[in-house]
Sequence to fold (101 residues):
Amino acid sequence: MPLSATVVGAMLGLSVQLHSNALRKLPLMRHPWEHVLALGLGAVFGNQLVKWEAKVEEDLDKLLQKAKEANERRYIEYRVIDSEARPKIEELRVIEKKLRI
Fold:
């Protein structure tokens, strides 16, 4: 994967340089050192893009795991509170009925 990213990035850099020269109606291979520089920068860009994508995926997995844990805590705490609150609510209703009478 990194080799293909390097090659694709290098070709992207070269094509940007060639396209830039073509738009300005200059000879395509004018200043060959610019093409070498564009190849290098494109290769670096391709490799950094692959690293960034892997890091984003890892961060997303961490965030999804945290969200899942938070949702589980919320659901479990709600169920515990709900089961503890029902008898108390029933007691309050009985007391309220007695007070009305």
About this structure: The chain is about 90% helix and 0% strand. Helices lie at 2-23, 32-100. The radius of gyration is 32 Å.
